[in-house]
User: Fold these one by one.
Assistant:
Number 1:
Amino acid sequence: MMVRIYLDVYFAVNFALDYLILFLVKRLLCLPGRFLRMSVAAGAGAAWSCLVLVLPGLGGWLGLIITWFLVGGAMVALAFGIGGGNGGLRELGVRLAVFWMVGAGLGGLLGLWNSQDFTNGYFFGMGPFPLKSLPALCLWVAGAYFGVSACLRLLQRQGRARHSLYQVKLCYKGATKTVNALWDTGNQLYEPYSHQPVHVITSEACRQFCGTVNRIIYIPFRTVGAEYGLMPGIRIDFMEVERDGRLLWRYERPWLAISKNPLSAACRYEMLLHGEEHP
C-alpha cells in the first residue's frame, strides 16, 4: 500500500501542536516564554518529527526515548530557558514533566478524534492526514486551547480566592466568634473622625457575639453603580487573623461596619478585611 505524506503539511501541523503544548505549559506554570523562543522550540520539535518520518532507523524505543527526553528537554529549554546549578535542572525536570502530561492529554484527545475517523492517525504513523481535515484540525486545536485556558482561569481564580481567605476571631465584652474573612483590596472604608481602617461584617454574624453595644457611629460608603450610603459601625475589643491555625495579626480596638446584606453569594465568608490591612 502506497502512502503519500506531504512533508511541509506534516511539519506545519506538528509545529502548531508543539506550539500549543508549549503555550499550555507556559500557562500552567506561569512561565515568561516569548513568542520567538517558543516558535523556535516548536520548530525544533516539528523538524525532529519530520526527521523520524524520513529515517526509519530512529523509530521504536530509541526514537521514543530521544523524543521524550532529549528533544522534549531541548524544546522546554529553548522555550523557557534554564537556570544554573541543581535548582535549574530541577526546574527543567518539572517543566519537562508538565510538557509530557500536556502532550499525553492532547494526544489522548486526538486519539479519540482519530477513533471517530476524522483523521487517519497522521500523528501516530498509522496513515496519511487528508488535506480536507485541516479545517477540522484547526477547529480542534482552537477548541483545545480555549477549553484548557478557561479551565486554567477558573482554577487560578479559585486558588486566589482560597489564598485570600482567613479565619478571624472576634472578641467583644468577653464574647467571641470566629468567622471566615476575605481580604478585599476594594474595601477602603475609614472611620470618618480618626480615619482608622474599617472592616465589614454581616449583621447576622455580628449579632452572634454582640448582643448590645455602647456606641454606634455611621460610616459613609459608596459601591460601584450606587449612590453614597451609611453603614452602622461599632468598635470591638480585639480581633485576631489566622490561617491554618497560625496567628498572623492581632488588631486592638478595630472598627467594624455592619452590612445588612450577605457579603458572599455562596456564604464562603462573612467578613471583608480592609484592603490596606492585609496581614
Number 2:
Amino acid sequence: MFYMFRNDVKKIDPAQIDPDCICTGYIKSEQLEDVFARLKFPKSSIDVGCIEKKYFRTKVEVYDDYTYIAMRIKQEVSTVGASDCIALYIRKNFMLVVDVFDEDNSTKEKYKQALEHFQAPNITLEKLIYSFLNSLIDGHSDELSDMEMQISKLEEYVLKERAGKNFNLDLHRMKKEMLVLRNYYAQLIDVGETLQENENALFPQADLRYFKIFTDKADRLRDKVKLLNDSLIQLGEVYKSALDQKTSDLTRLFTVLTGIFLPLNVIVGWYGMNFENMPELHWKYGYLACVTVSAVIVLILTLVFKRKKWL
C-alpha cells in the first residue's frame, strides 16, 4: 500500500508516486524486487535478508540519493522473544517500509498510526519518519516504570525473606531483558544520529530537530535501562547477603546448641567409663541426680546464651 500527502492522504499505486509530493509505502519483502524496479532503486540495495540473521544488529547505510536502514523492533519491553523486522528506504520526499517479519501486524498498525499523527497539509518527510520511529518506542517509558516497581517489590520480598525458590532464575531473565533493551535503544540512537547528520542532504536543515527529539527520547530510555540494570545487580547482592546472613544465623544456632549440650556429652563420657568403683552407679538416687544435674546445666546455659543474645 502506498500513500501520497497533499491536502489529504490519498492511497495510490507505485506508478502514481510524485517526486514533488510526500509519499510513503508499506510492502512485504517478497514485493520488494518488483517495487524497486518501478521506483528505480538500484538492485544492489535489496538487502533485507541480513535482518533474519540471529545476531543481527541495526544496519544504517547512507548513499548519495537514499538512506537504507535495517532493524529489529521490540513491541513490548518485558519480552525477550522474537521481534519484528523491517527495512527502511528513504529518499527525497519518500519513505518505504519493508515488512520482513511482522507476524501479528503490530508494526503495520504503528505505521498506520504514524500516517495519522500529523495533518496532511503540514506533513513533511522528517515529520513522517519521526512519527514512525517514535511509534516504535511508544509506551516503553511506562513499561520501564512498571519494571522498576517490580524490582522494588522483589527487593521487599528479599528483605522479608519471602523470595521464591526461582528468584535467581527470575533475576537472570530480567537481566537478559535489560541487555536486549539496552542494545535496542543504542541501535535506535544510531539511527537517529545518522538521520540527524543528513550526510546525503535529503532533509532541510530546519527539520533535523525531529531526529534530535527522537534520539534524545531513545537516549533517555537507554539511561533508564542502565539504572534498572544497576538496580538488578544491587538486588542480586542483597539476595546473596540475605542468604549469607541466613546461613550465618543457622551456623550460630548449631554452635549454640552444641555449646549447650556439650556438658551432657562430658557426663555421658564420664559415666561411660568401665570402672568398678563408681559409687554413683549403685546409689539409689544416682539416675535422678544425673538427670537433674543435666537439666539444670541445660537451663543455666540456655538462660546465659539468651541473655547474651546468642540464642
Number 3:
Amino acid sequence: MDRCDAGGQNERGEAMTVLVTGAAGRLGRPTCRALLDAGFQVRATDQRYARDAGGADFRIADLRDRLVAYTLLEGVDALVHLGNYPYLMPGIAPQSLYVENTAMNAHLFQAAHEMGVSRVVFASSIQAMSGDRETGKPERPSCLRYLPIDGDAPACPANLYAMSKVTAEGLLRYYTGRSATLAATALRFPLLVEAGSGWIIKRSRQKVWPATRIDEGLSYLCTNDAARLVVEVLRQQKPGYHQYLPAAAAPMISTPIPDLVREHFPGVPLRQPSEALRSLVDVSQIAREIGWEPREQLPIEEDQPAPVPA
C-alpha cells in the first residue's frame, strides 16, 4: 500500500481512496459527501444502503465478520471508521454490544495494519471520559480532572458502550506503536446534531435536561463540522496516535460559563478563570495541529413571554 502525503494524495500522486464505515449513519452520510467534495475516492459501507452517500462506491457489509475487513480494505489508503453501535441500545445486552463493537474495531484495525493502510480516523465518544454524573444528581463528585476539558482528559467510562470506545483507543495506540508511518486519530465526538432547517433541538437559555451527563461539558457538535474535521485530519495528521475532543464553540445552554462552573463543577480545577471561558471544551489543540475550528451552532431557543395578568 502506498503511503499518503499531507495533501491527501498517495505516493503515486493519486487521490487517496478512503473506506468509510457506518456510511448510512448520521455522521457517515455528510462525511462521504465532504470527502468526495474534497477530491478523495470514497468506498462506503454499512449494513443498510444509503441513497444520499454522494456517489460513493457503496457496499453492504457486516463488520462483525473478520474476513469482510480484508475485502473492504483492498486497495484502500485510509480508513474512516464510524461503524459502531452509537450508544447503549434497547434490545441488545450491554455485554453483547461491547463484544460486537470491539470485534468490529479489532477486525478493521488488524486488517488495516496488515494491509499497510496509512491513516485511520476512528469515531470514539465523549462518553469514554465523561462518567455518568447527571444534572439531577449534583451531589455526585465530578469525573473531570480539569476544565475546560479536551481530548487528553483521562478515561472515565460509565458503561460498556463507553468502555468499548476506550478499548478501541487502546487498540489504536497499540497499532501506532508497531508502525512508524501509521497516523491514527480517535475523535471523542460529543452529541452530534444535524445542521440546517428543522433543528431537532435548540440551545436553551436556562434549562438543562435532567438526564444530561454534566461531565460532557454540555457539549455538542454539528455533523457538517464533524465531517469537515474528518477531512482535515486525513489531510493534515502526522504519524502517531492522536486523540481529540471536538465541540461547537458554545455549550448547549447559554447560561454564563461562571454560573455553570459554580453550579455544576465545584472543586474541579480550572485551567483558566471561568470569566475568560467561552466554552467548557477546549479545541485549541485541534486548531493548532489540524487547522480546524467549529463553524456552526444551534440556534438559541427564545424565552417564553411571561403571562400577562388578567
